[in-house]
Amino acid sequence: MKVFRFNLLIGIVSMLFFLSACNDTPNSIGNGSLNKKVDYGTVTVDTFYATDFSTIPNQILTSSLDRFMLGNYKTYQAWTCIKFFQWPDSLTGKTITSATIQLKGLYHFGDSTASLTFDALRAVQSLTNDSLTYDSLTLNSNFYYNNSPLPIKTFIPVGDTEAITISILDTTMLREWFSTNTDTMHLNDGLILRPTNSNIIKGFYSFNNSDTAVIPTLSITYLDTNGNAFTYSHKVGFAKYISTLNRASLITDNNLIYVQNGISYRGLVSFDSISKVSSNWPISIFRAVLQVTLQSSVSVSRDSLYISTVGSSGVADGVAYSVSQRDISGSHPLYSFDARQIAIRWLSNASARKVLLSGYAEGSSFDLFKLYGNGVYKPRIIITYSLQR
Amino acid sequence: MNNSKYILFLFIFIGMCPLITHAGGSSFSRYGFGDILRTGDSRTYALSGTGIALLGDGFINELNPAGLARISLTRFSTGFEYNNFLSKDETGSSVYSTGAFQGLAFAFPISIDNGIVMSTEFTPYSKVSYGITSPLFDTLLQTTQHRTFYGSGGLSYLGLGLSATPITSLHIGARLNYMFGRTRQYQTIAFDSTDYASTTFDRAAYYSGFTLTLGTIYDSVGTLIDVPALRSLSVGFTITTASSLDAEIQRTYPLSSFFYNDSTNSETGTSGIPLSLGFGFSYLYQNQYRFLGDIVLENWASTNYFGLPPVNIRNSVRTSFGFEAIPAKDADSFMKRIVYRAGIAYNSTYYEINGVGINEYVMSGGLGLPMGPESQLNIGLQVGIRGSMNNHLQKDTMIRLSVALSASELWFLKFEEE
Fold first, then answer.
1. Which CATH entry fits the domain spanning B3-412: 3.40.50.2000, 3.20.20.140, 3.30.420.40, 2.40.160.60?
2. 198-257 of B, contacting A, C-beta below 8 A
3. What residue segments make up the domains of chain B, in order of their start?
4. Pairing between strand A191-195 and A67-73?
5. CA distances from A122 to A96, A147, A165 (A)
6. Chain A: nearest CA to B350, how far in angstroms?
7. With B80 labelled, which of A38, A119, A136, B337 sits at a CA distance of 20 to 30 A?
8. ipTM of the prediction greater than 0.90, yes or no
9. Which of B359, B381, B358, B355 is nearest to B368 (CA)?
10. In whole angstroms, what is the distance from residue B343 CA to residue B348 CA?
11. Are B193 and B152 within 8 A, CB to CB?
């Protein structure tokens, strides 16, 4: 009897336990008991306008780009730093008799028919540091490079995609470059190409391209121990550019936001007006569109902008970002961004309700976007949301 | 380990298992603290929750602490409930099922002569469990919103009770109840239009606070009024104080992986538990048939929720009657020692939705199966209906099955098989 009772109990309880573990998918039964106003909240579409804006300089990390720039145009300047290294062991210590550098073009800014000229300067310090700016480079010229131009010959055809050739005539420097692969004496810090022209900036393929046919190439002729001449092409190296622009020549209208690629300058736009919504936080944000209106642009090769969130330090923190879509249906071209993630962040826990406007791939061109900062076309964010209590 | 211990651990294990349910119940539980549970002990479950005036040795009266006064052995009780809902509205019907731990209670006699018994119990107080999908065309956005509302959680209380018999036939008791729990409302929102993002919203409310239940039972009314036929009539009264539970609502907006943290805000306030008054009687006829009746009134409408009147809530009145056929003391077989129970209840619940008061009718029945000395396996079945389909509401048909164990310390002792 006792065993029977025990088994009865176990059986009943187990049956109930497994029965109750059924999952039930929600359905519309009971929908009528919901209070649509309270339970759904009120869907609202609000537009909030920018409360402040400015144009701020920015440092571009050009060493990781697919291109580097060289040349002068108006007050724009772009200097190139280039270095070849990691020689084959079989070449170290060889007697170099000549060398040429070939750079393959892919971009220009300015007068496409203008000629490009430059000096080649021997670098005497490492230039790989991404924080190196134009000002520090030129103010400490004797520290970073030998200010006497190297003897070179150049062949620079007109045309964006043409390759230019730089013949280096200083074989002493070349032999020092090739003397070792473990350079502790700053024998090989590469070259600085300082533009001397005035009407064009050209862009060249950097080492960060998978197609070895277009990346910078150092071709050398050397002698073996028997005095026989051989040639060799080397494609391992590092290149970047350092650029500058006269700020006063860029920012000529305080009502505009200037987004200048290639230098760069970015727009910093504040939306403190959004705090009206945050008093009701949290809300369900279904959509948020940030819009900026173009006043004019010049030499646009990539017609796209980029927004990103800003941390408490005032710089882009990359937590949320968005790429624009362009609408030219109105009287003024409009750039629209999906800013839902940014709006959520602004309304929840952001220390700064600001957004940075930059050019898409801002290191790859010198595109300039002039955007309205004030007036009826000033930046705005349109938020579709529902209050939830 | 003997079978008794296996059974105890089985109950505790099941009680601790989190049951994964989605819909699980009626949409009415979206309001207030959800469905208020009034099961009492496993014995009173089959009596439709009737037992304010019930006094005895064989169970722990969770409806009235004065009802502990006759306990002579250390006792415990625990149970498990299977709950099945058939909800029906003008659009169709749906069946939901859930399972739940019914609580755990212990009682320890301190002075049998003076009726001093201490008890401690952990008991579910309310339950929220629902899932509703709701489409709505948004005229502003010109697209259809699809919202799914989920609710879960509920309140429980941890009670510390004490009874005493100061004078013959008069039993008093008090229980301090620490009420606590969390209710969660979770919402997903999606649109037909791809212009609008799907969102989720999570609202969790945490409650805690104390109430005090005072009770009394007078077990010989007939003697008091000199009517011998009513000598076995008991009357009981309970009062549970109103209370303002500390409440914290945490609203969470789950964010994408772009973000470091979910976005939350919290708000603190109070949420009211109403004054509860209970009256009951119990009449034992020929030592074999017990008739019981209870009425419980709770003034929910006067409570507040974060300083505001609660939405869709009214005062509640619950009336119930129970019947119990008790075996003869000299019953010598298993079948003869079975207790038979039945009950009915009418509950004017505290829900009032779309202007319609939600009323509940329950019939119950059950058995008390002897499981050993001073121990019973109580099986109770409640069948009820709730609500109406007026004003686009729903009607619930409920089937609840409870299996619970009520045992004394003797249950752990090993006896020779007969």
1. 2.40.160.60
2. 199, 201, 203, 251-253, 255-256
3. 3-412
4. unpaired
5. 17, 8, 17
6. 14
7. B337
8. no
9. B381
10. 17
11. no
The CA-to-CA distance between both ends of chain B, in Å, stands at 20
| B80 to A31: CB separation less than 8 angstroms, yes or no | no
Question: Residue B113 class from Cβ within 10 Å (0-12 exposed, 13-18 middle, 19+ buried)?
Answer: exposed
A32 touches chain B (CB under 8 A): yes
Interface size A-B, in CB pairs within 8 Å, comes to: 205
DSSP strand pairing (B130-138 vs B143-167): antiparallel
DSSP character string of A38-85: HHH--EEEEEEE--EEEEEE----GGGSSEEEEEEETTEEEEEEEEE-
Instruction: Using a CB–CB cutoff of 8 Å, tell me whether A331 touches chain B.
Output: no
pTM of the model: 0.73
Residues of B in Cβ contact (< 8 Å) with A7: none
Q: List per-residue pLDDT tens for chain B, 418 residues long.
A: 455 555 555 554 444 444 443 456 788 999 999 999 987 777 899 999 999 999 988 889 999 999 999 999 999 999 888 888 888 988 888 888 888 888 999 999 999 999 999 999 999 999 998 888 888 888 888 999 898 999 999 999 999 999 999 998 999 999 999 999 999 998 888 999 999 988 888 889 999 999 999 999 999 888 888 888 888 999 999 999 999 999 999 887 665 444 445 567 788 999 999 999 999 999 999 989 999 999 999 999 999 999 888 888 999 999 999 999 998 877 888 888 899 999 999 999 999 998 899 999 999 999 999 887 778 899 999 999 999 998 889 999 999 999 898 888 766 555 555 4
